[in-house]
Design goal:
Blueprint lengths: L15 E5 L5 H13 L15 E5 L10 H4 L1 E5 L6 E5 H7 L1 H11 L6 H6 L2 E3 L13 E3 L2
Parallel strand pairs: 1-2, 1-6, 2-5
Antiparallel strand pairs: 3-4
Helix pairs in contact: 1-4, 3-4
Length: about 140
Amino acid sequence: MQKTTLANKATIARNWVVVDLKDKILGRAATKIANILRGKTKAIYTPHEDTGDFVIAINAAQVRLTGNKWKQKKYYHHSGYQGGIKEFTAEKLLARDPRRLIQRAVHGMLPKNKTNEHLMKKLRVYAGAEHPHQAQQPKQVEV
């Protein structure tokens, strides 16, 4: 007889993971980060529970896009007022804030429900190679 064990808050062990984005393709890296945040890389993955780890993404300013996406990929923001839409390319977003490029990509790959905001709080993105989370003893993960 087999038994299915479901993870709960008492049985979940949260780890910290470092992902180096230097010369990595944005979409592929964002997919791996989203899977780590949700806990899909663990054997105890349960869809209705947050079983994922904390992710520290470093070198966000050195991420790559393929093809002409630097100039052709558009991001939009709307203020809520008439005519309040703003459009900018991936190149401008990287120049303004490289962390937002990674956050938007990962956010789009997470489920669109109440867990999305909770999962995004476990993601820390830094433009350079330095991060202040050495006390958590993060493990390096290759994406």
